[in-house]
Amino acid sequence: MPPGSIVLAVPPLSLYLHLPWCVRKCPYCDFNSHALKGELPETDYVAALLHDLDQDLPRVAGRCVESVFFGGGTPSLFRPESIACILGEAHRRLPFVAEVEVTLEANPGTVERGRFAEYRAAGITRLSIGVQSFNPRHLQALGRIHSTAEAVLAAEEAHAAGLANFNLDLMYGLPGQDVLGARTDMERALSLAPAHLSHYQLTLEPNTLFYAHPPELPPDEQVWRMQQECQTLLYNRGYAQYEISAYARAGRQCRHNLNYWRFGDYLGIGAGAHGKLTSASRDSIVRLCKVRHPAAYLRDAGTPAGIGGITQVTAAERTFEFMLNRLRLMQAFVAADFESATGLSFSRIQATLEQARTAGLMEMTDGQWRTTLRGQAYLNDLQAYFLPEAVAAYLDTPEAGCTAQPGNYGYT
After folding, report:
1. Judging by beta carbons within 10 Å of its beta carbon (0-12, 13-18, 19+), is residue 142 exposed, middle or buried?
2. Is the CATH code 1.10.10.920 the one for domain 315-409?
3. pTM for the whole thing?
């Protein structure tokens, strides 16, 4: 290989397992989740997951798993015995690093007393508890099945089970919520001493009930005050923001999500699960998705029909996807981070970064680039700078000092 050539590096590998059922579909949720009708097909679905994993194994031969995440749906609908079986069989097929992080998403309304201790015995090391609010009126508006008391009990149970490394999901900007209400929710959450807190604004996503029938949400200036006051509370309690909506005590950042945001690799196992896998020898990054509907997945998992699609990630897509994720992090990045993750020259984005810096959305010190506070506030606008068509259009202008044509950037 010629001196100075850019080499695509193989990043860390995570394992994501999608368990798609929930008791009731929330009106704001756009995930591939399905309200359970009848008996949970637990045994059959566990078998399907393992068939699915077996089919993907050749794509990750010789690699170690650094984190595992059970997402949904509501994974805590599955018995601890089933979770133990999945983890044991996955570990038998794939090496795990010694201190592997294993997260289980849990709904407070589906967790029986003492069950977190059983999940810990099954191999879970971290919980992510979907609280969203402690206000009964807001819980009802969000379609949540749990009560305030059950949310508090879930956190207490996590501590009692020795799973103090847990996350609480908390929303703000809810229908009928004011600044005091958002602050009260945050204070209640912090009183439960989570290791990690995800704090994000309610948004109306396509293909959701809220999108079809929008509730009245607080005005933007009030939502901004909610965010500011809650961030102050978090900082004062020792939680550092490391991602646009994630805060953690020292050493308690979610390693699984960090791998996503750093453009790492992951196996996606389960109905509708997505994966991203890198081959340095082929200079290739591929994305895979599995069939979405649980019935089709149960029938076809582990066969070619169970693959919903396999696509090569083009150079233009690598550029955008790296920046889409990395700009969410508070941590700076350098040219080598971009080049090793994408296999592309940093010159590809340098002019666009300078554009963003001129707009006050990015800053650079000693070659380290990071999102400014303004950039965090206008993250969607910042990310749009790196859309494939935006990068290609700018690189083809005289002021960019570049004669490359859009066709060089994966366009057809």
Report:
1. buried
2. yes
3. 0.91
